[in-house]
Amino acid sequence: MGDINIEFRPTIGYIGGRMGPLAALSPLHPLSSIASSLTSHLSKTNRQSSPSQSQSQNLKQNSQTLWNLLTFPQQCFYQSETYPCGLGISCWMQGKRPLDLCNGGILWSCCIPNEVPLNTTSSNVTTSEPINEPECGKIYFNRGPKIVGGENARFGHNPWQAAIVKQQYFNQKISCGGALIKNRWIVTAAHCVYKTPANNLRVRLGDYNLRAHTEQLAHEEYGVRRKVVNEAYNPATYQNDIALLELSEQIAFREHIIPICLPQKGQNFTGEKATATGWGRTQYGISTSPGVLQKVDVEVLDSDECQKWMKSVGRRESIFPNMMCAGYKDGGKDSCQGDSGSPLSLKEEGKTTLIGLVSWGVGCARPNLPGVYTRISEFVDWIQIHTSSTDKQTDRFTTSSKRNGNNQKVKHKSLVVLYFVGMSYWWLRSRSDRELKHRWSLGYESHKNPLTERIVGGNSSQPGEWPWQVSIRLTHPQAGKVGHWCGDCNLRYN
C-alpha cells in the first residue's frame, strides 16, 4: 500500500518495496510508447517461459499492471468532488485553477473551477488542546468513527500514523507511511527515503482522509531537519530497511497525534494478530488508493515457515533475522503498494506497540506470499542511540516550517507563478525570432545544414577562392546544432 521497484520475472512478475506507483503517463505522453514496448517484451518473455494457462493469466496481469503504473490518472478528488486531470497550461488558459492532485505536478494537474473555494480545512474541523507528556500507544480520541482485504480505520485510532510527503520541482505526493515514536522523530522504511534529500521531505501527522477534509481535527505538517538511514541498509535485499526522520520543530501532542510504544529488544511476536495500516492500494497494480486510512489484521508468522511457503511457489528471496512475515497461507489480506514504512502494530493491555514496518512483498495478498516487514525489536538500540542524541537540544534548530503547511502553500504558489512566467517568456521570445525558427525547420526537414539561401544573382565560388571568409555557426541549448548563422571576415592588422 509511493516509487516502485519492479523486477520482471517469468512466473510472478513483481517484487519490491511497497511504495506507491511511479508518476503515471497519459497515452499521449512520449513514455507511453515505452510502456507498450515493455509490455510487449514482458509478454514475449512469459510466453517463452511456459505456455500454461496460469502463465497466460500472469501475463495479462503483468501487462495490465505495467500499463496502470505508466498511465497518468484521468480524475482527481478535491473537497469530496471529482474533477478532470489535464495539462496545467491548458487548465490555466481556460480560466481554471490547476492543483497538484494528479501525480504530475503543475504539468499534469487537477483542473478546478475558480468558483470552488480553496478551503484549507472543513468548517467542522477544530483544534484540540495539546496533551503534555502523553502515554505512548494510548488512544485519547474516543469520539464517534487499502490495504488488501482490510477496512477503513477510525479517525484518531491510529494517532501515530504519519504520511511521508515527497517534493520534486512542481510536484509533491504522499509516497510512504511512517510512525511517530517520540517528539520530533518518525520511523519509516529506508527504501522510501534513502534517495531523497531531507529538504525535499515533509511529514504529515493527524491526517485520515487524503482526498477530503472530513476529519474532526486538523492535520499538521512538518519539515524534516535530517534523515538517518540505517548504515547497513541493502537496497538489493531490503535488509535493515529502516530510517529515522528528525522533524524541524517540536510536536504539540494532541488527541489525534500521539507516539507509539517501542517493543523490548529481541521480543518475539510469532503467532500474534497484529494490525497493518496505511493509505496504499487495496489491490495490486491499480493506480489509485481509497484516500481514507486503511487497516487489516494479519498473523505474525514464523520466519522459517514463511521461507518454506515462498520456496514452494518458486521464490528465492531470503527472510533475514531482522525481517518478519505477516499474513496468511491462503493470502487475501496484506499490505500493498503505497504502504511502505507504515506501522505493523500490536495492542496489548490498552497500549499499542510498534512491532514492524511495511517493507516488501511479492505482489499483494497472494497465497504462500505474505508481506514482509522490518522487525523493530532488532533495531531498538539503534533507534535509541540516534533519537537520544537530540533530546536535550533546544529549539535553535527549529526552522521556519509552519504547521498545517502554510509556508508550503506560499512556496507552491510562487513556483506556479514562476513556471507560467517562464513559459510565457519562452513563448514570446520564440515567436519574435522567426528567422531562427525558419532555419530550425529547414534543418529538421532536410537533416542537412539549414542554410539554403544564396546571394541573389551570384554563383558558386571555388574552394579556397576566399580564404578569409568565416562562417559563424549557432548551437541552441534545446535544438542542438542549428548550423550556419551569419558570415564574418578574418582580419589581420599590418
UniProtKB/TrEMBL annotation:
Keyword terms:
Disulfide bond, Hydrolase, Protease, Secreted, Serine protease
Q: Where in the cell is it found?
A: Secreted
Q: For this UniProt entry, which residues form the secretion signal?
A: none
Offer one Pfam family short name for this entry: Trypsin
In terms of InterPro entries, this protein maps to: Peptidase_S1_PA, Peptidase_S1_PA_chymotrypsin, Peptidase_S1A, Serine_Proteases_S1, Trypsin_dom, TRYPSIN_HIS, TRYPSIN_SER
Single GO MF descriptor: serine-type endopeptidase activity
Show the PROSITE patterns listed in the entry.
TRYPSIN_DOM (PS50240), TRYPSIN_HIS (PS00134), TRYPSIN_SER (PS00135)
Q: Which GO terms describe its biological process?
A: proteolysis
- Keyword Secreted assigned to the entry: answer is yes
Looking up SMART domains in the UniProt record yields: Tryp_SPc
Q: Which residues form the Peptidase S1 domain?
A: 147-388
Q: Name one GO cellular component term.
A: extracellular space
Q: What protein am I looking at?
A: Peptidase S1 domain-containing protein
Name the source organism.
Medioppia subpectinata
